Amino acid sequence: MLNAHSFIKRQKRSYLFRGLLYLFPILLVVVLMGFYVRGISQPYAKQNVAEIKHTWQLYNKENPNLVFLSEHIQQLPNTLPNETIVMERTLQRKVANAELLVKGNHQHLKVFLDGELLYDGGQTIKDKNPGLTVAMVDLPSDYIGRLLQIEVTTPYQAYAGLPAQVFIGDNTSLIASMFSHAIPNLIILTICLALGATLLGFFLYKGIRNRAFEMEYLLLGIFTILVGLSDISTDTASYLFFDPHIHSTLANGLYLLTPIFIMVFLYLKSHHYRKWYGAFVLTMVLVVITLFGLDFLNIWKFPDAMLLVNSLYVVGALSTAMLAVGEWYHRNRFYSFLVPFIMLAAIINFTVYIQLIVGHRQVDSALTSLVFLGLVLVICGYSIFKHLRETDQARQTVQFLEVKHSLLQETHQTVYQHMDELQQLKQEFSGHLQAVQQLNSQGEQLKIDQYLVDVSQQFKPLQQIERYSDQPLVNMIFSRYHDRAKKRHIQTDFYADLPAKLSLSDVDLSSLLLNILDNALAATAKLNDPSQRFVSMHIVKKEQQLTITARNAYRHSDEEEAPSFIDGGYGLAIIEKICQRFDGSLTIDATDDFVLTATLQLP
Predict the structure, then answer these.
(1) DSSP notation for 357-412
(2) Assuming Cys at both sites, which of 119, 141, 340, 563 could form a disulfide with 111, CB separation 3.0 to 4.6 Å?
């Protein structure tokens, strides 16, 4: 007894060999790409740059006696809006042509060296929003051992007490550092723009083709583009391209707006908990619209609303996680596939939002973007899989309808042929009856007897239309292959004990029988001796188990090439796939004749 897998493996060994041939150039490309990625992420020109992070003394300008060390705290406690914190340390790192890069997050910045003012942002405290700023400050050649002081002031409670980010290096190194930090964000932006444009194009394509637009793809496309834009807006390099106020509005607006689209998307994909989740999403949409209006009217700016926004998104992450678990529990196909990824994204974003609420402002923004991008890629993968599955099902349905139409045509032709023969027999019978009546009227009894003998010898019996079972589709398939086998001088033995209706779909039933019989006839026809050619198929349904047993003769010299299955073994693969889908099995015995047994557990 041979397992069906062995026949498939024999046919596909050549594909493995071809794959190995393609593997070498692919690995070469990967190695080269890795080399360039490493060079971009750690450029040679970046060697003379360093972030000054854990060597600061921090204190409130109004209370200089209470000093904190930056390695112990991330934000100066008990700092109110418009209070100035001082960052102080002695410069010790020797760099030729040294410069400072100072990055402020909605903060006014002043830089001093031994009390001498080197940089003043130029804003005043009355300027409500300092925006997102970055400053390049030249250091004198004798800066070693001198005291560096940076005064940081902000009108917003969310950023009060937060130190500025400071880097030291020569101009080339600082630019290389900014460039290398921007590369991951640029890659994320490029992927998001390309993926978002593809989703929007697919939205238009399906809408125009089906004359019905699916809003899920529109929302997902916009969300993907916003993820890329939101990520790049927080990169240091982007500070150089926009006015600080515009940059602040852009970054905060994208941060506020982006999660709304994925929440609305998940709402549209939900079924059982749509009502309560929809109420929360509607609340979030109204809050976002209100915040945009208040910022536009200069009543309540985005930085003031960050605590409220982060708190709402914490609740949103928890609500989304609960929605995913609930929909998965109720067997929502979309959430059944995506629940682990949605849970992972919800947990990571929950952690990020909590860190922002408690005052940890140096959170890597790329983390959230990568989580969102990963979620989009998984959703796209699911959508592609679903689209391919639906397309394949539609293709199978079309193929089945074509086969069924062909079977019906053949059946109709057979019926019409029998009707023509019956009509011809009717006319001949009418003529014979008239001749017998005429001889009877003449009293020619001997001639009548001889005439009837001659007619009986000329009579050809009608070819019967076989009825194999109560299942009409099986009858049509058996009738077709009986006629084909007859033309090839192949004996057939078809039997089916089936009810008129089966819980097995017509598409699956026809795929099984057509693949088995096609390949069996092709293998048997190779025999040179017509007397040895035969194909048999018996189909029996016992309770919920359907058993199909097919037997055919074959040329044993072809055994190593899987004789009874042509087209590279794909017919066998289709049969095995259908059997597995119905918790069945497929066995093959090619000892003498080729015997295939397929069992299916019908629902």
Answers:
(1) HTT-----HHHHHHHHHHHHHHHHHHHHHHHHHHHHHHHHHHHHHHHHHHHHHHHH
(2) 119
The answer to whether 266 and 274 have CB atoms below 8 angstroms apart is no
* Closest listed residue to residue 244, CA positions, set 120, 123, 100: 123
* Residue span of the structural domain in which 510 resides: 467-601
CATH code of residue 192? 1.20.1070
- Extended strands (E) in 70-173: 84-90, 98-105, 108-113, 116-120, 132-138, 147-153, 165-170
Question: Does one domain contain both 207 and 293?
Answer: yes
How many Å apart are CA 60 and CA 80, to the nearest integer? 10
Whether 335 and 324 have beta carbons less than 8 Å apart is answered as yes
Pairing of strands 49-52, 165-170: antiparallel
Q: DSSP alpha helices (H): ranges in 297-332?
A: 302-329
Q: What is the pTM of this model?
A: 0.67
What is the chain's Cα-based Rg?
40
- Residues in contact with 457: Cβ distance below 8 Å, sequence separation at least 6, in sequence order: none
Distance CA 466, CA 476 (A): 9
Q: Are residues 415 and 541 in the same domain?
A: no
Q: Which amino acid, 403?
A: V
CB 99 within 8 A of CB 93: no
Asked whether the beta carbons of 122 and 132 are under 8 A apart, the reply is no
What's the pLDDT tens digit per position in 536-550?
999 888 888 889 999
- Enter the tokens of residue 173: 């190194």
- Angstrom distance (rounded) from CA 369 to CA 353: 13
Distance in angstroms (rounded) separating the CA atoms of residues 224 and 371: 11
Question: H or E stretch including 534?
Answer: strand 534-542
Q: What is the pairing mode between strands 545-552 and 491-497?
A: unpaired
Per-residue pLDDT reduced to its tens digit, 454-505: 767 666 555 555 677 778 888 888 888 888 888 888 888 888 888 888 888 8
Query: Is 353 strand, coil or helix?
Result: helix
Pairing of strands 491-497, 534-542: parallel
